């Protein structure tokens, strides 16, 4: 069977780059498809990553690509893969813009997309004033008098809302939990706080609009009753969905959480020869987690190839 690459990696964020960084160490040819779409595209700083604290994610990606130069076995294709399939001869074929590429194995590192709630102004405040992770963002606002926690969607229950609010108290003296008109949740939160007091309050008013204030990460909440308030920042994790449908095209199982099902430690999916790494395969959406899962998938794909060459059983 003729093929151009041993392994193709779809996605050039931290997971995809980490995957390729493992593959090249076993001297395999790898092509990375970079769509130019990154979940942290609006972020100007990365955190929790040793040696790269408070630095630009774009610079991180550029540095990672430069590291591949000495190997001479990595190709970068700046395209959005449109279709992918497993052919009858066992090879995988990816296509984009009328061009096709073939490989023995595939690693999906396509990431996820955030699905914003239907609140006017939310998108304009995203990253600059609305933080989905208070390890990634928030420390820079420490010492604030008051911050907000939007209890809606994935954070719209007592346990998760208080989980985020407690983190917020490391950065602000007071946290207000906003339920955006959900009176039932507001009552449940008030009951929880009466049973276990904390410097938190609950606001059940319907949010009409969010406005990014001029000061630092501040966000102004305008309510349907005509009142408004400004918080130092808002914490909220919106729902997410898989970026694209390549996993479905390949027949990979997708979980009820809308994540690609993988088998650790090497992160093979339910389709042999297809691996997944990063946000598309785990609910823990962090840069360091993506790097780790990329290393695992980038180790597993070569191991499977090696076992097949000698018709032996792979370690997984």
| Poorly predicted sequence stretches spanning 5 or more consecutive residues | none
Number of helices: 7
- Which percent bin holds the helix content? 10-25%
What is the H/E string? Answer: EHEHEEEEEHEEHEHEEEEEEHEH
Shape: elongated
Q: Give the distance, in angstroms, between the N- and C-terminal Cα atoms.
A: 24 Å
The count of β-strands is 17
Q: How would you describe what is shown here?
A:
GO terms for molecular function: oxidoreductase activity. It comes from Periconia digitata. One of its GO terms (biological process) is cellular response to toxic substance. α1 packs parallel to α2 (57-67) and α1 runs parallel beside α7 (287-309). It is built from 7 helices and 17 strands. β4 and β5 (92-96) form a beta hairpin. With 316 residues, it is of the alpha/beta class. The strands form 4 sheets. Strands 1, 2, 3, 4, 5, 6 and 17 form a 7-stranded mixed beta sheet that branches. The chain has a 5-stranded parallel beta sheet with strand order 8-15-9-10-11. The chain has a 3-stranded antiparallel beta sheet with strand order 12-13-14. It is 24% helix and 26% strand.
Short description:
The chain is an alpha/beta fold and 316 residues long.
Key terms:
flavoprotein, FAD/NAD-binding_dom, oxidoreductase, 7 helices, Ferredoxin-NADP_redctase_2, 24% helix, 17 strands, 7-stranded mixed β-sheet, FAD/NAD-bd_sf
